[in-house]
Specification:
- By secondary structure, the protein is α/β, with parallel strands linked by helices.
- It is built from 17 helices and 13 strands.
- The protein folds into 2 domains: 250 residues, Glycogen Phosphorylase B (Rossmann fold), CATH 3.40.50.2000; 156 residues, Rossmann fold (3-Layer(aba) Sandwich).
- The strands form 2 sheets. A 7-stranded parallel beta sheet has the order 3-2-1-4-5-6-7, with helices on both faces. The chain has a 6-stranded parallel beta sheet with strand order 10-9-8-11-12-13, sandwiched between helices.
- The protein is globular, with a radius of gyration of 22 Å.
- The structure holds uridine-5'-diphosphate-xylopyranose.
- Uridine-5'-diphosphate-xylopyranose (UDX) binds next to helix 1, helix 12 and helix 13.
Length: 453
């Protein structure tokens, strides 16, 4: 096959992409699929029954659903562990069939989420190259790949999850920034990571939804250590913009855009903790009264299941609605990227999931972080300590501290400085995705690699 130049599209190449079925993983994989489709590749998405994306939002792709054998009410760690076992046979069967598909053309390359490590031995045995998509950032990836070593050194199980003692092996993280799996899942967690890292080492390349201008040294370190090509091609949602269908598992409430249009420039704090994080009932009260007392306009996403123990809409405290009616809006799910790019939004109170963090950087919105689990504490550390474009609530959810932090971010001098710094980061990001920019060059290199198979 000819090398793919800017205007030379590899019509015959058929790629199979398999996302991990959580919102924060589905979004970047479907954005990548959209991007590759826009470059002329034909796309098949293999997906689980659990959290399946809506094929009608992606009419240009072919979808193959596979059974996962999952039951309700499982912890995400257990879901991953089960998928890595139960999906192996059905995935092999679909791939084997599609390797000789005469209608769409045979599959020439498989791209799967890093956490779906079982796919490596299957692609090896069927002799098709596998490229890995990592949906966290490079710093988190180094942290995750260091966990077996940290375990050997005695860091795990973590005795004091609030410890501020530095972890010299992975600066600038402290013990409290390390991923902490629930005690009952520590064994599963370690096993998944060991398999994940070894499968990724055996793959043909590593795609990151990350950027050289944000993590150059760390990305080079990964390149040296893994000895496979590394492609930092973030932010995928920006690259795919204008072509992409929605991979949202919940319906976004677009009415908030009309509400935002009535607010003053940079006055609104947008609050969302992503698709999985959940808090306890008393924390919801602290959040609500912290927001109310700050006096700042807010748009708050309270998704069904956000409060532990309740699958439906959370009950906000009595008096909260009356108190905030003229300056607050609560929705179940928001069109987040649109919200963050709205001129009325001046701050983002986030759990620090990587997609949310990256979206906030790309839209130039400074952050207040309250990390909940896994990579989020490390992301918050980057935001507050390295890029200095936000701050972290370090001591739990308490209304006075929340009120104070929101005012510092939205109207204080510190917030102003953070807004200036994040504006610079945003400009660097904008440059990266233009022709000649680092992410653009990495994307060209990725397309060259895929086209060489
Ligand atoms: C998870 C992990 O928590 C995260 O740390 C990891 O990096 C990826 O997987 P999640 O917790 O859902 O993801 O957070 P995040 O990574 O921020 O992804 C959430 C996605 O949902 C974002 O793309 C965001 O734009 C979208 N979203 C969120 C909405 O579209 N609407 C909302 O109301 C909230």
């Amino acid at each position: 096959m000819a090398r793919v130049g800017e205007n030379q599209l590899p019509q015959a190449h058929h790629l199979l992409l398999f996302p991990c079925p959580f919102q924060g993983h589905l979004n970047p994989m479907l954005q990548l699929a959209t991007l590759l489709h826009s470059k002329g590749f034909s796309i098949t998405i293999v997906h689980t029954q659990f959290n399946s994306p809506n094929p009608s939002n992606f009419s240009n792709f072919h979808f193959e659903i596979i059974p996962d054998g999952l039951s309700d009410g499982l912890h995400p760690m257990d879901i991953l562990s089960i998928i890595n076992v139960n999906c192996a046979a059905p995935f092999r069967a679909v791939l084997a069939r599609m390797l000789s598909d005469n209608r769409r053309g045979p599959i020439t390359c498989v791209i799967t989420d890093d956490v779906l490590s079982f796919t490596q031995s299957i692609t090896d045995s069927l002799k098709v190259p596998r490229i890995v998509l990592v949906t966290c950032n490079a710093t988190s990836y180094v942290t995750i790949s260091s966990i077996p070593m940290l375990h050997q050194k005695g860091y795990y199980p973590i005795e004091d999850p609030n410890s501020e003692v530095p972890v010299p092996e992975i600066p600038p993280l402290r013990v409290k920034d390390l991923p902490v799996p629930p005690p009952s899942t520590v064994g599963t967690f370690l096993q998944l990571i060991v398999r994940q890292i070894s499968a990724t080492r055996a793959s043909s390349g590593l795609i990151f939804n990350a950027l050289d201008c944000l993590e150059q040294t760390t990305l080079s370190k990964i390149q040296q250590e893994f000895r496979i090509p590394v492609f930092p091609i973030g932010p995928l949602y920006k690259f795919a913009a204008g072509h992409s269908g929605s991979s949202s598992l919940l319906s976004p409430d677009h009415s908030c855009m009309a509400w935002l249009a009535k607010q003053a420039p940079k006055s609104v704090i947008y609050v969302s903790f992503g698709s999985i994080a959940a808090i306890d009932g008393p924390d919801l009260l602290e959040m609500a009264w912290g927001l109310a007392n700050s006096g700042q306009p807010f748009l708050w996403v309270v998704r069904p299941g956000f409060v532990n123990g309740s699958e439906c809409a959370a009950e906000l405290p009595e008096g909260f609605e009356e108190e905030t009616r003229d300056r607050g809006l609560v929705v179940k799910w928001a069109p987040q990227q649109e919200v963050l790019s709205h001129p009325s939004v001046g701050g983002f109170w986030t759990h620090g999931g990587w997609n949310s963090t990256l979206e906030s950087v790309c839209e130039g919105v400074p952050m207040l972080c309250w990390p909940c689990f896994m990579d989020q504490a490390g992301n918050a550390r980057l935001v507050s300590h390295v890029w200095r474009v936000g701050m972290t609530l370090e001591n739990g959810l308490e209304r006075c501290e929340i009120d104070w932090a929101i005012r510092r971010l939205m109207v204080g001098n510190e917030g102003k400085e953070m807004r200036e710094r994040i504006k610079d980061l945003k400009e660097n990001v904008d440059r990266s995705i233009r022709k000649g920019g680092s992410s653009h060059q990495s994307l060209d290199a990725l397309i060259d690699l895929i086209s060489s198979f």
